[in-house]
Amino acid sequence: MQENEISFFSRRTLLKGGLASAVSASMFTLPNKAFALNLINQGFENGVRELVPYPQKYPLLRITTRPVHLETPFSYFDQSLITPNKAVFVRYHHANHPLNIDENAHILSIKGNVSRPLKLSLEELKKRFNQVSFNVVLQCAGNGRALSSPRVPGAQLGNGSMACFTVTGVRLADVLKAAGVGANAKQIKYRGTDEPALPVTPAFIRSLDIKKALSDDVLIAWAMNGAPLPILNGFPIRLVVPGYFAPYWMKHLSEIEVINHEFDGWFAKEAYMVPDTVDNGIAPGAETKNKTPLRELKVRSFITNIETGNKIKLKNGELTIRGIAFDSGSGIRTVDFSADGGKNWTPANLGKSIGNYAFRPWSITLRNLKKGSIALMARATANSGETQPIVQPWNPGGYARNVIEVVNITLTS
């Protein structure tokens, strides 16, 4: 194997011995003692998941094997605002994803309604265009789907299909301008190197409006947290669309075509659609009369240091709560906190921002607490004015969950 080639099986011994042997051999640096067992209960019906090691990854929660779908244990989000590369979740649409890629041989084609079609290697991207880096949240469209009520079909995810990391790459706009975008261009459509297992299965091809494609923040990225992308996260290059859900972030990016019309492929017109209502919700079981593509992230917040079911011994009647919040890129204005199930709200303290597209830390110390059961809630409001709802709008795909989450705990003296 060449030095510049990353292989899915370059650490296949991790898969041979099973999880127990991998952990007992101390092959990973784990964030805390929660990983002493190989199962994690995510707190919903049928929510027990096995921790499984994959190449370039810590043991993650396995959702499916083919295609690979791995979720991040939630405890990572209390360790740092930046998710380690080895802990970032994995989601593929097709089982035939690349097993090894030579970065020197990988070519990105720019074609279609352009005056100068391009074929660019990774090295040419790095040398020809200005490089930029910033922090960004990546979130699966179905993050939290298993918490839908009533439940919906699809991968039953907890809230671990998200991550925050530093991306490095070049602006897609610079590459498209070098190719010379035609005056009547309407969208780009783009794809990677993963393929469907069956000929009848639609290829995973996505599209972006040309205005979004030419915005400053959309990147062709090759690095996460200063290191090459893990192969399961898109090595050698992926499209990064800050503020948009993960289906727009194409892994193993290989082709971009500028088109003069709206792309009508299956993943543009059928997949990742939500009801075209004010809150993208309908009554459970009702027919979805009109649909619209799911694009931008919704404002969210989480408590990260305490989980539902915890029994916590009070010290001097005090308890410190901390968490994270994010939105589609306007930034977080406030996080309010309730310790009585939403009857009363108190502003939490916002930590330093590491970028409007990134996780924003927050914390609050509760005082004069007494033993008993309490319901903790955090509610984020973005600079755009968007705030989290008290009731989650229901949609048949279980997409875009952003309800105020409730953490029920018991305090002891």
From TrEMBL:
Against Gene3D superfamilies, the record matches this protein to: 2.60.40.650, Oxidoreductase, molybdopterin-binding domain
Q: Which residues form the Oxidoreductase molybdopterin-binding domain?
A: 94-266
Q: Which domain of life is it from?
A: Bacteria
| GO MF entries | heme binding; molybdenum ion binding; molybdopterin cofactor binding; sulfite oxidase activity
Query: Ranges for the Moybdenum cofactor oxidoreductase dimerisation domain?
Result: 294-408
Q: Which UniProt keywords apply?
A: Metal-binding, Molybdenum, Oxidoreductase
Q: Which cofactor does it need?
A: Mo-molybdopterin
Asked whether the UniProt record includes DNA repair among its keywords, one would answer no
Which biological process, per GO, is one annotated for this protein? sulfur compound metabolic process
Give the protein name, as stated in the record. Oxidase
Q: Which organism is it from?
A: Iodobacter fluviatilis
